[in-house]
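Budget justification aside, the reviewers requested a transparent look at the raw inputs and outputs of the sequence design task funded under Objective 1. We therefore reproduce one unedited record. The lines immediately below are the structure tokens for a 638-residue chain.
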């Protein structure tokens, strides 16, 4: 069978729509998008129904797909995690469901198609049953029990900055609040009357509650990338698609993503548009025309734009953005007597647009080199392009090792051996195991004796694996006064020390800054881990003078980490760029707690690219022979 015939056969199979009869679904607070009024059930379907091929802004068709999609399963598992944490369940029980959510999120195919769910990483018999229930649109017993004990409105409360699950539980038990709306209506002084809450924290929480929009859900980069790529693969597999790319903020790799944009080139746009509107993931069709299809999947809006192949470059550029970059580029074009739009380029005053097939051609005709999407934020990239000064951006393939990973010695799931083998599979030359230190008991931090036992285990593994160099480090807690969680003589025995703040976030900016600076001045501390402590969409950075940290990092030869975990990405892009300009080195690490998380390095690299980082500014881009010399040389003023 010819390739084209195979492709058409695969497409025909992929685009079949599956229906389920009306049945009780999961709690509406968890998956409201799937239980909205007006959902079309199987009995409502008449043969041949579809959105009209003629654009109609009022077209709104909704369908159900058998079972939940992976993102929905992940969100339900994360709801279980949040409810468990509010209830103050066992750390390890909570961790089991969190790891299960991560495994489903990393799965490259629908979870409902996995026959034996226990073959997934970190999924045991109990969590497998829960996942199966969710995948088949049944409410798991544990979710029903938790929802019966705990107001599910508290899940949204945990999304307020500065309010984690345990704090939400306190607010419920001590103030009898069960929703964001009830928090927003609290009288001044109620929150600050509770132990551990001050006026500033009350103001911050009340302000966030009043601004909170339950309908505005932003995805982390890994979730958006997984969803976007699955939909992109669907578009690319259609016989009428010449080429297609993700656009918008996801292509620019912004920290969080609100919706998805896809640009496709096609010689048969009607066929592609019809197929996209009929796709199995299209829960709602908001608009349907030959050039544009606008759908909702898993509560996320997806905009497909279709254009002739000869105009693909200008449309892709336009919908990639960012808006500020496009405005400045448009102003530059006007000075050259050219108008630029999604339709192409036109001589000023003519209105006759000439299509542009590639972005490279578009930039070239405006006298500029190609500007990578990650730089398109009007942050000096156009001026740098004019002068031939665009950076040679780091790429994921430049990373030679990961300096911050955890094992089952503390709160990780992987063993020393399994993590080493995963790193070998990525082509790494070295890997540093940095489990938590003794004071962080919630993460099973290592006592000095356990740390020494781990050192011996790492040395033995290093001898076993000739393909990679394995080193024993520690992620050592920076205590409230800035001292470290191990004595200096023990730190001296380690190959590497990452120092991080995990507790006492509310000490205030000056005290927090002094605390971290003191740690930087310890000769054994090579890296400050996740320097601002933020958790995207859940916890604001703690108050700290990052500019001063950057100055002190330069003075003490301390590296600042760019943590690749999608809910951290810490340092943030503006501070990474400031650090690089100040001569500070960075490390791009995953903070991986299992084997699969080592692949998250690409998200840290994406943020480094947004910050104009070249590989010579990243210490774990050094090949082993250089990195070994770097370690032996010790810290010193730059």
């Amino acid at each position: 069978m010819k390739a084209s015939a195979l492709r058409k056969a695969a497409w025909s199979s992929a685009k079949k729509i599956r229906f389920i009869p009306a049945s009780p679904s999961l709690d509406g607070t968890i998956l409201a998008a799937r239980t909205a009024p007006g959902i079309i059930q199987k009995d409502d379907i008449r043969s041949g129904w579809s959105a009209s091929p003629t654009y109609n802004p009022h077209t709104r068709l909704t369908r159900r797909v058998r079972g939940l999609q992976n993102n929905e399963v992940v969100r339900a598992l994360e709801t279980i995690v949040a409810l468990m944490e509010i209830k103050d369940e066992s750390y390890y029980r909570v961790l089991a469901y969190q790891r299960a959510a991560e495994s489903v999120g990393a799965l490259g195919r629908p979870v409902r198609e996995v026959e034996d769910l226990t073959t997934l990483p970190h999924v045991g018999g109990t969590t497998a049953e829960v996942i199966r229930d969710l995948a088949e649109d049944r409410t798991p017993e544990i979710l029903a029990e938790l929802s019966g004990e705990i107001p599910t409105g508290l899940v949204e409360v945990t999304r307020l900055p500065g309010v984690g699950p345990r704090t939400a539980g306190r607010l419920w038990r001590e103030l009898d609040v069960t929703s964001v709306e009830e928090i927003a209506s609290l009288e001044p002084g109620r929150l600050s009357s509770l132990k551990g809450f001050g006026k500033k924290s009350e103001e911050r929480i009340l302000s966030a509650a009043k601004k909170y929009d339950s309908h505005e859900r932003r995805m982390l980069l890994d979730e958006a990338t997984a969803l976007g790529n699955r939909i992109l693969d669907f578009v690319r597999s259609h016989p009428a698609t010449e080429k297609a790319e993700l656009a918008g903020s996801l292509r620019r790799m912004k920290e969080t993503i609100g919706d998805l944009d896809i640009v496709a080139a096609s010689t048969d746009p009607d066929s592609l548009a019809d197929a996209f509107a009929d796709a199995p993931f299209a829960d709602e069709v908001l608009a349907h025309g030959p050039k544009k299809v606008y759908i909702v999947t898993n509560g996320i809006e997806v905009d497909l734009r279709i254009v002739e192949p000869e105009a693909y470059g200008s449309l892709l550029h336009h919908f990639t953005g960012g808006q500020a970059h496009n405005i400045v580029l448009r102003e530059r074009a006007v000075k050259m007597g050219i108008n630029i739009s999604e339709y192409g380029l036109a001589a000023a005053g003519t209105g006759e647009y000439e299509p542009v097939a590639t972005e490279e051609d578009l930039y070239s005709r405006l006298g500029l080199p190609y500007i990578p999407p990650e730089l398109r934020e009007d942050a000096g990239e156009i001026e740098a392009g004019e002068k031939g000064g665009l950076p040679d951006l780091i790429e994921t393939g430049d990373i030679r090792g990961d300096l911050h990973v955890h094992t089952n010695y503390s709160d990780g799931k992987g063993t020393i051996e399994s993590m080493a083998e995963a790193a070998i599979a990525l082509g790494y030359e070295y890997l540093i195991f940095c489990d938590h230190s003794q004071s962080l008991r919630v993460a099973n931090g290592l006592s000095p004796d356990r740390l020494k036992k781990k050192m011996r285990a790492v040395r033995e593994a290093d001898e076993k694996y000739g393909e990679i160099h394995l080193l024993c480090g520690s992620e050592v807690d920076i205590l409230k006064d800035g001292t470290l969680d191990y004595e200096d003589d023990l730190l001296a025995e380690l190959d590497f020390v990452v120092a991080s703040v995990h507790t006492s976030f509310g000490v205030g900016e000056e005290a927090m800054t002094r605390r971290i600076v003191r740690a930087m001045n310890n000769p054994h501390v090579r890296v400050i881990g996740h320097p601002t402590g933020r958790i995207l969409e859940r916890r604001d950075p703690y108050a700290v003078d990052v500019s001063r940290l950057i100055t002190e990092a330069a003075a003490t030869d301390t590296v600042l980490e760019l943590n690749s975990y999608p809910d951290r990405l810490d340092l943030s892009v503006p501070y990474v760029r400031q650090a690089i300009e100040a001569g500070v080195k960075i490390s791009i690490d995953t903070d991986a707690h299992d084997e699969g998380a080592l692949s998250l390095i690409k998200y840290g690299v994406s943020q480094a690219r947004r910050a104009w980082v070249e590989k010579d500014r990243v210490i774990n881009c050094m090949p082993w022979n250089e990195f070994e010399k770097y370690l032996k040389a010790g810290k010193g003023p730059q």
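The chain has four domains: 70-211, 216-307, 322-390, 396-633. The longest strand covers residues 469-477. Computational costs for records of this kind are itemized in the attached budget.
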